[in-house]
Amino acid sequence: MKASLACLACMFASSLSLFGTPDRTIRVEEDFLGSNETGFAILRTETDNHSSYYRLQVTRYLDEYEKVPEQQPEACFLARRVKRTTLLDVDHLRDPDTGKPSENVRTRDDSTQMADLLTRYPARAQRWDASRFAKLSSWKKDGRISSGEANFLSNYTSLPEEIFGEYHRQPKWKMEQAMEDMNALYLRVTTGMQEADEDEGSSQSRWICLIPAKTRQVHDHLALQPAYLCAGSHPTAEDAVKQAREIKAKAAEAKSPVPALAVWSVRYGGAPLCFTLVLQESMEDMQPERFKQLQLLFGTSLSPISSTCFVERAKGSESL
Fold first, then answer.
1. How far is the C-alpha of 268 from the C-alpha of 274, rounded, in Å?
2. Are 236 and 244 in contact (CB under 8 A)?
3. Are residues 121 and 249 part of one domain?
4. What is the mean pLDDT of residues 219-228?
5. How many folded domains does the chain comprise?
6. Is 179 in the same domain as 297?
7. Which one of 97, 170, 211, 253 is at 20 to 30 Å from 6 when CA atoms are compared?
8. CA dihedral of residues 112, 116, 118, 119 (deg, nearest 10)
9. What is the dihedral of CA 196, 41, 84, 209, to 10 degrees?
């Protein structure tokens, strides 16, 4: 009988231990270290409680990225990690009986020198001010960041897999900050963050980098006016650029001022891309006389077009 009671007591104690086990919580925080023309470095900290009150593993990595990796898929707009160094991996332990703390250093890298890293990645990114960030953050809808017909980041492309490591569900994420260096835009995105009065649950706070070509596209979209005058459409960007150069030559010969021009790829719904030549001059301030003058100069009808159908400013049109 006593043996049976002892067995029951052991089973009860085991069940209490089981029900008292905390959920596993993994948290990721990243700090931007520095950058150069072709890459950047991130200090990444991961904490893992391993479903225990008595163990907390803290691992710190140096992650190095290339802004335009050689093996970059055409549809990928993000810089890729090319090297990871484990700087320090430590188990912080607490004795369940005495509460005495101890540490177990699993990995320690003494070869990586901070001075070498700062020499390799000397640039510091500049944070965007609130008004500029507000315009960018207004582009975030339905798990993607887009402007007009241009998509910059999406749950349906690379975000869950490449950033958060989640393959089987669409994580809820938010964009908290933007900053920029000499040629790339960095966005701080978070997922799994709890409410202000909570302190449980896994979470990630990550820096992602749009490759330089995509960063330039973001700048072009931020500078867009709601509508422009356009001079027809073409099947290729080269044709539209050729039209622009012919118009500028004609204007120079006639000694007539011509506004700055740009060529944009345009998509109407599901139709194929076409390319249109647009006048950068503001429509709001245009007088009827000026409109007639421009139509004569262009030799074609000018019509308004909404910038919401714009995709990308064509290469080769930057100097028009």
1. 9
2. no
3. no
4. 95
5. 2
6. no
7. 97
8. -160
9. 70
Give the strand pairing for 261-266 and 140-141.
unpaired
Q: Lay out the sheet containing 303-306: strands in order across.
A: 303-306, 227-234, 274-279, 261-266, 310-313
Alpha carbon distance 159, 163 (integer Å): 5
User: Of 220, 242, 266, at which residue does a domain stop?
Assistant: 220
Instruction: Indicate whether 318 belongs to any domain.
Output: no
Q: Are residues 231 and 213 in the same domain?
A: no
Structure tokens of 156? Answer: 């349906």
Residue given tokens 């140096």 in the structure block: 62
Identify the residue with better confidence: 102 or 292.
Answer: 102
Question: Within this chain, do residues 177 and 133 fall inside the same structural domain, yes or no?
Answer: yes
Domain limits for position 50? 23-220
Residue 184 phi, psi (nearest 5)? -140, 150
Give the per-residue pLDDT at 73.
62
Cα separations (Å) of 70 from 52, 79, 161, 216?
Answer: 42, 11, 20, 19
**Token pair of 52, please?**
């225990």
- List, for residues 234-253, the tens digit of each pLDDT value: 999 999 999 999 999 988 89
Do both 216 and 69 map to the same domain?
yes
Q: How far is Cα of residue 160 from the mean position of the Cα atoms in its chain?
A: 12
Write out pLDDT tens, residues 264-315. 999 988 889 999 999 988 888 788 888 888 888 888 889 999 999 999 999 8
Cβ proximity of 192 and 208 under 8 Å: no
In which region does residue 201 sit, left (phi positive, over 0), alpha (psi from -120 to 50) or beta (all else)?
A: left
Residue 18 lies in a domain: no
SS3 call for 311: strand
CB count in 10 Å sphere of residue 48 = 18
**Residue where a domain terminates, one of 178, 203, 220:** 220
CATH number where 276 lies = 3.30.70
